[in-house]
Amino acid sequence: MQIFSLLFFIALVAISFSNNFDLFIRYIGYILIIVFIHNALALGIGYGVGSAFRIPYKDRRTITIETGIQNSGLGLVLLFNPKIFPPELELGGMLFVTAWWGVWHIISGLGVSVLFNWREARRTRKAVA
What is the rounded CA–CA span in Å between residue 39 and residue 52? Predict the structure, then answer.
């Protein structure tokens, strides 16, 4: 199910980008920075709050990822739903921001997961040695 949900999400993002590629080129400089800063703050706050409340490390990892990776897939589904946002509203910019948000969350989420797993493996090796 993990692989299916990831592939489905990537398909939604690809559709958004293909329909709004000109907006991507025009505004990527602004949106890239805004999304990066927002996501970095969310990841940091998630980990920081977990640390401040002395939550166990594994739970802190979960809070970090859940806080840092908001549901951008849900945003895309809502924006693509013509009953909620009719096409005449021309939401290309909103779709673009949400799509880039989704791409960045895949990158940052996988990056944070790799970092946590690497750190856990390193701790395990030290404990065995």
Answer: 20
Q: At what angle do helices 92-128 and 21-52 cross, to 10 degrees?
A: 40
By residue range, what is the domain housing residue 113? 2-128
Half-sphere exposure for 93 (CA within 13 Å, toward CB):
5
Split into its structural domains, the chain has a count of 1
The answer to whether residues 73 and 102 touch, using CB atoms and an 8 Å cutoff, is yes
pLDDT, one tens digit per residue, over 1-47 is 767 877 887 787 777 667 667 767 777 777 788 888 888 998 999 99
Task: Say what the alpha-carbon torsion angle 11, 115, 60, 44 is, to the nearest 10 degrees.
Answer: -80
CA dihedral for 102, 104, 107, 111, sign (positive or negative): negative
Q: Quick check: 69 and 109 in contact, CB under 8 A?
A: yes
- pLDDT at position 49, please? 95
Q: Distance between CA atoms of 52 and 33, rounded to whole angstroms?
A: 28
| Residue 29: per-residue pLDDT | 78
